[in-house]
UniProtKB/TrEMBL annotation:
<keyword id="KW-0482">Metalloprotease</keyword>
<dbReference type="GO" id="GO:0160237">
    <property type="term" value="F:D-Ala-D-Ala dipeptidase activity"/>
</dbReference>
<dbReference type="InterPro" id="IPR009045">
    <property type="entry name" value="Zn_M74/Hedgehog-like"/>
</dbReference>
<dbReference type="GO" id="GO:0008237">
    <property type="term" value="F:metallopeptidase activity"/>
</dbReference>
<keyword id="KW-0479">Metal-binding</keyword>
<dbReference type="GO" id="GO:0006508">
    <property type="term" value="P:proteolysis"/>
</dbReference>
<keyword id="KW-0862">Zinc</keyword>
<dbReference type="Pfam" id="PF01427">
    <property type="entry name" value="Peptidase_M15"/>
</dbReference>
<dbReference type="GO" id="GO:0046872">
    <property type="term" value="F:metal ion binding"/>
</dbReference>
<protein>
    <submittedName>
        <fullName>D-Ala-D-Ala dipeptidase-like protein</fullName>
    </submittedName>
</protein>
<dbReference type="InterPro" id="IPR000755">
    <property type="entry name" value="A_A_dipeptidase"/>
</dbReference>
<keyword id="KW-0224">Dipeptidase</keyword>
<dbReference type="GO" id="GO:0071555">
    <property type="term" value="P:cell wall organization"/>
</dbReference>
<keyword id="KW-0645">Protease</keyword>
<keyword id="KW-0961">Cell wall biogenesis/degradation</keyword>
<keyword id="KW-0378">Hydrolase</keyword>
Amino acid sequence: MYDIRYQIPVADFNLIRQPHFQIPVDRQAALFDEAMVNVSDYGLAFSSWYAMTDGSNAPYGQFIEGSSNVGWLRKSFAEKLARVNHLLKDFSVELLILDAYRSIACQRGLWAYYWERGKRENPAASEEELQRYALRYVRDPRNFDPGNARSFGIHSTGSSADLILRHRQTGEWLNMGSKFEEYSEVSVTDYFERQLQQGEIGEDDERLWNRRLLHWALHTEDITNDPILYWHHDWGNQIWIKVKTALYGSSPTAAWYGYVGAPA
């Protein structure tokens, strides 16, 4: 379908589901304090899924408190994504960023959403049960500590981005096989690679190739995908190191991006 020779690596989820918290962050690294930039200044399209007010941002259907309509990322990461976007011109598609830097205020907003959703689904749920429910989707920010990666999401490092592909001319989203923020087996990145191996789909399946195109383009800049969700990508943080080790066998010993405060 696309003139690329590429397959998405099939992941070992025993490795992928290992925690990333124990991976060190090198606070002396040259990029540790790197500034964040507005992605629009790099020609990157951004539409905050959490800041939408028209109800179209499933599963939320509402504005998430603390979210922002400005997309921020570390400068080197934004530059890499800009180069990826240029590469994708030959395919008449571009990146659309739906979540970039996520402030602790937004993290608290997401935590509140899932907590309340858990209460609606199970009015008799205990505090412990509600906490377990919310933790399925988002880090617990209630005891936020900038030195403890367990207390904030990886998006708060400014080095993670949730991305899909869209047509450059029309803005229409490419068919990626499942909806953004759909937490299901189909959203696992290698789902269609496995389906192909099992003979459930054909080699020309557009969902397979759209995921391959996104994965391939980002891989040219050493940006990794979290194999659990086709839309989530990282560079230079703890999840990036975990995924590189699990999929490709080697990685740096320490991340260079840790928590960073929200831009003024």
